Amino acid sequence: MEGRKDTKLLHRLIRFVLRSSAALPLGALHAVGSLLGWLIYGISPNYRRQLRANLERAGYGDARTRRAAIASAGRMLTEAPALWFRSHESVAALVREVSGVEAAYAARARGEALLFLTPHMGCFEVTAQYLAHKAMAEGLSVTVLYRRSRLAWLEPVMEEGRGRANVRLAPADVSGVRQIFAALRAREPVGLLPDQVPSRGEGEWAQFFGRPAYTMTLAAKLAERQGTACFLAYGKRLPHGRGYDIVLRPYPEKIPGETPARRLNRAIETLVRECPEQYLWGYNRYKVPKGVKAP
């Protein structure tokens, strides 16, 4: 009983802190995030080594890209409260420009379902919120596949912040996959992060920036599903907290002999090369999940 009280108190405290910080200007949140990014980089040898190795493997060994990526990772953390706890309209207003949306409108007009793949790049939170805001105007709901946080005390706050009236949060399990397919059959938009490392049996090894990465087969197969138009998307942070530009790119044509997983990784690589400084290079994309045989 005492433990439950402590958990509730912790949740209330975290919620209060996050809600309070949500009121700060986006520029201030990004400034704090830059400092936080450098702090994490400075105190964690494993993170530092991983970030540098991933950048160099992809051909970005220059100091400018590395410095920008370090700051960008911190901004990803500190901007979250503003995106979770501001009104839906306020979050949508942070988007200054949307490019590549014409193809998505055309696919929608053809009666196709829309699948949006948002890698760990830029602000993927604002991309989902903006999509939900636009879908609401058409009376649609958006289904977003997400992985529950390993931090149990953070999970209720994340669900509260990400859940909107027309957003269905689908957990990354069998029930969530059913929700995804049901939404696509109903011609409703679906969003997911395609570069998360899946669990055993949910992925296959495919090249990603020249090295095998255990890759989500669900995203790869959904992208090739008939009647579904797939787009890669990210929210590009603008300087000085001015907001975001949302960028949509059509899924690339398949190369003969290419596996669905490799096609997915190639699509992400192409997107990352547009703005490498805002990709989450510190993420352990190449880890070997428990029970999976290393390549």
What does the secondary structure layout of this molecule look like, with pairings?
Layout (H helix, E strand, L loop, with lengths): L1 H21 L3 H18 L1 H13 L5 H16 L1 H6 L2 H5 L2 E5 L1 H9 L3 E5 L6 H14 L4 E5 L8 H8 L4 E5 L2 H12 L4 E3 L10 E6 L2 E6 H7 L4 E10 L6 E7 L9 H13 L23
Parallel strand pairs: 1-9, 2-5, 2-8, 3-4, 3-5
Antiparallel strand pairs: 6-7, 8-9
Helix pairs in contact: 2-4, 11-12
Plain-language structure description:
- By secondary structure, the chain is of the alpha/beta class.
- It has a domain at 88-278.
- The chain is built from twelve helices and nine strands.
- It has helices at residues 2-22, 26-43, 45-57, 63-78, 80-85, 88-92, 101-109, 124-137, 155-162, 174-185, 217-223, 260-272; strands spanning 95-99, 113-117, 142-146, 167-171, 190-192, 203-208, 211-216, 228-237, 244-250.
- The protein has a seven-stranded mixed beta sheet with strand order 1-9-8-2-5-3-4, sandwiched between helices. A two-stranded antiparallel ribbon has the order 6-7.
